[in-house]
Write a structure and sequence with these properties.
Radius of gyration: 20 Å
Number of helices: 11
Shape: flat
Strand content: under 5%
Distance between the termini: 65 Å
Structural class: mainly alpha
Amino acid sequence: MATRLDRTQVVDTALRLLNEVGLEGLTLRRIAKELNVQAPALYWHFKNKQALLDEMATAMYREMAAGAAAARATTWQERVADAQRALRGALLRYRDGAKVFSGSHFTDTSHAPGQNEHLRALVAAGFTPGTAARASFVAYAFTLGFVIEEQAVQPMPGERAEGYDVQERAKLIGEEYALAAEVGADLFTDYEARFEEGLRAIVAGIEATMGPGVRPQ
């Protein structure tokens, strides 16, 4: 008997396989094999891999929104920071999660309520709608790029990719480039603290250059 597929089944399988094989190993052929169907059967639902990635990113966002805690932020700075912490957490739940998100677009409007509420809070704090959107994008771009780099070193919790041993890196670079050798720990360890440090810098930069009361350049 032929297996009857729906989009949700394909996406759920793809997300599960993503944690096993990563984005590079996630092929339509591999997904079809897991579902016990021929690869052409998937094309009834997704015309290509990017269309599937778009749906996967949308599903990841829905998971994040469903698990979001009630807003506790009392300032716009806290709201921006909390949104990025939630995004990072959602991306880290999947191997190459940030790469899946990068360049994808949502396939429905499930993101609109949360986005609208976020923008409403920033406008109430004194941003214009356009500046609120651009400020949010700056913070989003930081988080996405940070997690792409983080997952290159730590693909999943408890894993560490080859080539990022701090001591081996220092020996390889050598004493001739002592400063470059010294900063390995700052670059490739303690990502939680590094993210928070970078997030503070992003929020402070938004406040200084785009925040309420700042004249546009």
